[in-house]
């Protein structure tokens, strides 16, 4: 599931889609409530600026990669 998700992330991602994916990761118990809140707080358009769409896509790919590793090692 996570590999498919990462493969389907394009070069940009909106704040709403990013938030929805984080919510899904939280509901699947792949992220804690605190991790989700911190990521939401630090990835808004206001914080990331004019390159927010690109930065969020890059960040989300790395987050998914890390979560997938976490799940495989526990």
* Terminal Cα span: 17 Å
Q: Oligomeric status of the shown chains?
A: single chain
Helix/strand/pairing category: mainly alpha
Which series of helices and strands comes N to C? HHHHH
Low-confidence stretches: none
What is the mean predicted local confidence, pLDDT? 90
* Beta-strand content bin: under 5%
Helix content: over 70%
What is the count of DSSP helices, taking H or I runs of 4+ residues?
Answer: 5
Tell how many strands the DSSP assignment holds.
Answer: 0
Sheet bearing the most strands, described? none
The gist of it:
By secondary structure, this protein is an all-alpha fold. Helices cover 74% and strands 0% of the residues.
Characteristic key phrases:
globular, mainly alpha, 74 residues, single chain
Describe this structure in words.
By secondary structure, the protein is mainly alpha-helical. The chain is built from 5 helices and no strands. Helix content is 74%, strand content 0%. α2 runs antiparallel to α3. The longest helix has 22 residues. The protein starts with a helix and ends with a helix.
Furnish the topology, listing elements before pairings.
Layout: H1 2-7, H2 15-27, H3 33-42, H4 45-48, H5 52-73
């Amino acid at each position: 599931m996570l590999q498919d998700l990462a493969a389907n992330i394009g070069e940009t991602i909106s704040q709403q889609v990013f938030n929805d994916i984080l919510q899904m990761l939280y509901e699947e118990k792949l992220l804690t409530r605190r991790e989700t809140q911190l990521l939401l707080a630090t990835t808004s358009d206001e914080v990331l600026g004019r390159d927010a769409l690109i930065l969020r896509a890059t960040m989300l790919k790395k987050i998914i990669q890390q979560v997938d590793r976490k799940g495989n090692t526990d």
